[in-house]
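Q: I'm building a small set of examples for a reading group on sequence design. Run inverse folding on the following structure and report the sequence directly after it, with nothing in between.
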């Protein structure tokens, strides 16, 4: 969180292990069921240029649990539809009293632009294919709750890795914290170049190889239309890469199964896996509120 002044959360890349650890420790202590007045008087603006269920709702619940006021602005039904620019939208929200802007935007790097123009923290709630830092943090918290450490774990991230901002944030965080990350999918959805995302990341196009010995399996959404122009058919994808109970047995016996959501049952994974005993998908969602409370408190508490 050192990329800009005032501090913003723009991405996981470049964060120090101690910054990640501090946020995760704070998140672990957060209790959304016990509201506080820590951020009373603060205005948290949720600026969403893309749809969202989990991220938007949990940032709102997190802000409210800390006593802040929230304001939702979406691209549809706001003056963004009339052509107002990102910067002018930011200036407008700041003039209305925003103390922070939590933004989801389809363009990679849009948050850096906003952060350069505004004197308040900007929180990246997902930018294009680039990063989704709060998801990376909540994934890490979920792994920690189950595995007690991030160090030395083997984490297989399977599906449409190329288009996934979650894959990138997870890889940055997990490699920084000394986990081994293996990206897996067909060449078009998981090109070999994805190994360059973070030091030590491996790419495999073979699900069995990727899952063997994994402590954590992260399934990613695969949209049928993304396979449309690709060299692999939907049927072939399912046969080779869908995570089924049988495939999951290749991972360690106590491996956990994660997914950032939304899940597409029957595509990247089966319902038996999504709802099975190794799935921690609902725990991830619940942890989203705790992590986002920690982010908002860290960025806003010491600001006047
Ligand atoms: N994981 C995630 O970002 O989900 P939403 O798109 O519903 O926010």
């Amino acid at each position: 969180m050192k990329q800009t002044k005032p501090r913003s959360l723009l991405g996981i890349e470049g964060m120090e292990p101690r910054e990640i650890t501090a946020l995760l420790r704070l998140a672990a202590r957060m209790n959304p069921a016990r509201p506080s007045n820590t951020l009373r008087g603060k205005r948290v603006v949720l600026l969403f240029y893309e749809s969202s269920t989990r991220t938007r709702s949990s940032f709102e619940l997190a802000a409210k649990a800390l006593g802040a006021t929230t304001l939702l602005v979406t691209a549809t039904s706001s003056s963004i539809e009339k052509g107002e620019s990102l910067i002018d939208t930011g200036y407008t929200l700041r003039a209305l009293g925003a103390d922070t802007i939590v933004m989801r935007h389809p363009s990679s790097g849009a948050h850096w632009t906003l952060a350069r123009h505004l004197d308040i923290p900007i929180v990246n709630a997902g930018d294009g294919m680039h990063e989704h830092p709060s998801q990376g943090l909540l994934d890490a918290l979920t792994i920690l709750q189950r595995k007690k450490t991030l160090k030395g774990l083997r984490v297989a991230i399977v599906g449409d890795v190329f288009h996934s901002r979650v894959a990138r944030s997870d890889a940055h965080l997990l490699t920084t914290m000394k986990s081994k990350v293996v990206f897996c999918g067909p060449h078009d959805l998981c090109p070999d170049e994805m190994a360059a995302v973070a030091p030590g990341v491996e790419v495999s196009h073979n699900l069995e190889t990727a899952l063997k010995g994994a402590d954590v399996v992260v399934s990613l959404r695969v949209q049928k239309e993304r396979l449309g122009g690709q060299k692999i058919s939907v049927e072939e994808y399912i046969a080779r890469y869908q995570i089924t109970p049988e495939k999951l047995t290749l991972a360690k016996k106590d491996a956990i199964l994660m997914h950032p959501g939304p899940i597409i049952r029957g595509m990247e994974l089966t319902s038996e896996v999504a709802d099975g005993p190794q799935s921690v998908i609902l725990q991830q969602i619940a942890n989203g509120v705790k992590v986002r409370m920690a982010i908002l408190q860290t960025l806003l508490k010491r600001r006047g």
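The mean pLDDT is 95.
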